[in-house]
Amino acid sequence: MENAAKLRCQRIGCDAMFTEDDNPEGSCRFHDAGPIFHDGMKEWSCCKKRSHDFSLFLEIPGCKTGKHTTEKPVLAKAVTTSKKPIPTPGPATDASSKEACPRCRQGFFCSEHGSQAREVNPKPSNAVSVTPAESNTDVQEGLSAPTKKIVDINQPQTCRNKGCGQTFKEKDNHDTACDYHPGPAVFHDRMRGWKCCDIHVKEFDEFMSIPPCTKGWHNADPVS
C-alpha cells in the first residue's frame, strides 16, 4: 500500500507538511488575520504581536489552533479605526487652563500653552521650613527628598514629576506618595515610551496612560 501523499498546509504562519490520515484537531498553529506593515513595524492584526525585524516577525508563533488545510483561508481584514481629530482650542494663557492640561501638569512642553514658566508663589505669613525626614527603608530606585525650601505646608501644589501631575500638600508628602517615571521619555520612529520601564507605544494617548513604575516624593519643581 502506497504511503499517503504529503500536502502543505496553506494556513498563514504554519506551512507544515501533513497527510489526510494524520491531521488531528490542534495540530496546526496559525494566524487567522493578516499582517499590518506601518512605519517599519510589522504586526499580526489577530494577536497584536509585533517586531521591527522581518525574520523575527515571521517566527512569531500562530495564535490559533486547528486542523491543517490545503485551502487558502480568507483572512479577516484588520479594522483600522481612524483616530478622531483632536480639536485645536483657541489661545489659552490663563493659569487654570494650564493646570487642567495633562501635558503641562506632567512637565511636558505644550505647544498650546507655550513654555511652562515656573510660577513663584509669594511667601505666606505662616510659612515654615520643611525638611523631609530621612527614610530608614532599604536603598531603592527613585527620587531623593526634594531640596529644602520655604513652603506653606497647607498650600496645594502640583507635582511636576513625569507621569504624576497630582495635586498635593507638603504636610502629606512622603517618600512613597508619588507614582512617577524617572525617565527619560523616548520618542523614536513614531514610537513613544519610557526608558525606565522599557514600554513603547504608537499613540500619544497610550503613552500618557502608561502606568508609572517608581515611587518617591512629590515635587512641585520641574525635574531637570
UniProtKB/TrEMBL annotation:
Signal peptide limits: none
A Pfam match: CHORD
Keyword terms, alphabetized: Metal-binding, Plant defense, Repeat, Zinc
GO cellular component: cytoplasm; nucleus
GO biological process: defense response to bacterium; defense response to fungus
Protein name listed in UniProt: Cysteine and histidine-rich domain-containing protein RAR1
Organism from which the protein derives: Davidia involucrata
UniProt region (Disordered), positions on chain: 115-142
The keyword Metal-binding appears for this protein: yes
Span of domain CHORD: 9-68, 159-218
One of the record's GO molecular function terms: Hsp90 protein binding
InterPro entries noted in UniProt: CHORD_dom, RAR1
Repeat as UniProt keyword: yes
